[in-house]
Amino acid sequence: MTEMTLSRRQPSVWWGAMIICGTVVGAGMFTLPVVMAGAWFGWAMVLLLISWGGMLLSGLLFMRVSLKYPPGAGYDTLTKDLLGRGWAALNGLSILFVLGILTYAYISASGPVYQHSISQLGLPISTAEAKILLTLCVALVVWLGTTGVSRLMTFCVLAKILLLIVLFGGLLTQVNVPSLMSGPAAGEHYWPYALGVLPFCLASFGYHGNITGLVSYYEGNKQNITRALVLGTLLSLALYLFWLTSTMGNLPRDAFPEIVKQGGDIAALMSALRDHLHVNALALMMSIFSHFAVIASFLGVTAGLFDFIADRLGFGNSPGARLKTASLTFLPPLLASICWPNGFVAAIGFAGLFATLWAVLIPAMLAWKSQQRCSVAVVLLFVFGAMNILAWLLSWFGVLPEFGGR
User: How many domains would you assign to the chain?
Assistant: First the structure.
């Protein structure tokens, strides 16, 4: 009786939700107020809700398909079995591209942030040198193995949540409600800027790589996995809504074009916020939070990219093999960030485009094949995915307006 009770006892839903929330809410959140400035607050709320619903739906469909396979079966196994090797190869390339370009984005964004902090300590250092130093530190942690990554990630996520609570409490007291709720000036409209924001919102709800782990974590318990996905994504949505309220409520809309001109990265947004905050402690807290957000995202993405490369290329787990994997994981994005330092916002947009394939369209196709029918949920996901691809293409070809840009 005791053994049966123990076998049924499962981890709390809260821990699974924290895994999802910790993965979702990272350095990418700093792009949201910048890319949403043109559409402004009302449209930003609507677009976040649509993206949250679409990404939660795709995650739930992928979970249902995963539960039909043995524990540990991931994207590659499911895609090969249901869609064939061609789709599996395309899916694998899209995952590799998304993880690689996010690594580039976080290195590009982290350089100015850490260069500023290190310089304030009296150690003059260039942005490129700061990028190299941070990349080497993260690469060392990832090279040492999963234990180091998980411990540092846990610390960063807990610190990030604590800082967010303190920050929101302070920033919300300074929100300028009339500015936040202001309508467009005569002859101006906010809605033309709305469609181009979708790929960034999609990229801000990426957690699908964690679903396989949750299936094993909860031993295939559908109810607990579903609750963890819903709670984790709801927490992420709430944090994003508070973040947008705090940033847009403290920065007027006409302050964002200058942020865009400065690259639209974390350093530019932090600099603008520091100029508008009336309490020095909040500016300091914001700076500390940005450091933890960057490290947590950087570690999570690069650990996933490291494992993906090692698995795809069949590298072993010896120190020499891990060094080769680490070189392929970190060197190309690092060199790209030094050669093209201002690509943070554009990189997140590219990530949103390719994440549409493996986080929206592939789960929809897997559900379609698994169910042998095209359900309403599958149709909704296809529409959601098509909207994101259309938005990115229209933005890329300059059809959609870009606030503060061109």
Answer: 1
